[in-house]
Specification:
The chain is about 80% helix and about 0% strand. By secondary structure, the chain is mainly α. It has one domain.
Length: about 280
């Protein structure tokens, strides 16, 4: 499982994050061009044994994610200037997207140092890193983009609210119990299904070419399956019912979300970013 999770994290650090940052406006978009260089220490530390060198490199990556958290705070301070409900929803999603990698960065430092941060097992810390790159950053980013592209659709607005809320509830569930984490998984899954539904039903047909439409369709279809797996695992943990192992989840839910949802989604939205009609 370790090698697979590390490869998924590499995809998030070096590909999905810079592509996604480029879809935001302001300083985040400018930072996107430098992000692969900033993320390089984090990528290298994944392949080193736990110890001082790996920890130092992980700390360099955590510092880069802290820059994103600062940008998140700046956007949060400007929320009161939101022009309306849709604008507020998509800005909340953007704030969540920018803040999420800092959780991954902190977990990476703890895991690479062998420190059970707040009592969490090292395996859980290792899985927190990809979770907050994909379920944190990418999911919130795409939910905000969907809301920006279809501000008049209630489903898009609810997606941009429930994805950040679900992400925060899942994080809170780490500190409460499995039932709280299940609640977070339910809210996050509802939001992600709304993202997929809106892309499939309303935005896919606006795509300028077949490739963009196929990328949107793939990301939407994958969400239907991978988030169902997330619910199965969370319900099994909470109710002590049979459920997939973490290794199986990494190979299915994790890999599917990384390649089928996140990568396809950011590539599709990069192509759509040059089409003014998708911004109306």
């Amino acid at each position: 499982m370790t090698m697979l999770v590390d490869l998924i994290v590499l995809l998030g650090m070096l590909v999905v994050l810079p592509l996604g940052l480029g879809l935001l406006d302001g300083p985040a978009a400018r930072l996107a061009r430098r992000w692969p260089l900033l993320a390089a220490p984090g990528a290298v530390c994944l392949w080193l044994p736990r110890g001082p060198l790996a920890t130092a490199l992980a700390a360099c990556y955590a510092a880069a994610t802290a820059l994103l958290a600062v940008l998140a705070l700046r956007r949060a301070a400007a929320l009161r200037r939101a022009a309306g409900p849709a604008d507020l929803c998509r800005e909340l999603a953007a704030v969540t997207a920018l803040a999420a990698p800092s959780v991954a960065g902190l977990a990476l430092v703890a895991e690479r140092s062998g420190h059970r941060l707040l009592g969490f097992d090292l395996d859980i810390l290792a899985l927190t890193v990809p979770h907050f790159h994909f379920a944190g950053f990418t999911a919130a980013l795409v939910a905000g983009l969907v809301c920006r592209a279809a501000p008049d659709l209630a489903a898009a607005r609810w997606a941009a609210l429930s994805v950040p809320a679900g992400t925060l509830l899942v994080l809170a569930g780490y500190f409460v119990d499995d039932w709280a984490e299940l609640l977070g998984a339910l809210v996050l899954t509802a939001g992600m299904w709304l993202v997929g539904l809106t892309c499939w039903r309303d935005l896919r047909h606006r795509a300028p070419d077949r490739l963009t439409a196929a990328l949107l369709a793939t990301s939407s279809a994958v969400l239907a399956a991978t988030m169902l797996l997330a619910l199965w695992w969370a319900a099994g943990e909470a109710a002590d019912l049979p459920h997939p192992t973490l290794t199986w989840m990494a190979a299915t839910h994790g890999l599917g979300n990384a390649l089928g949802f996140a990568l396809c989604a950011v590539l599709a939205w990069r192509r759509l970013a040059h089409r003014p009609e998708t911004q109306r």
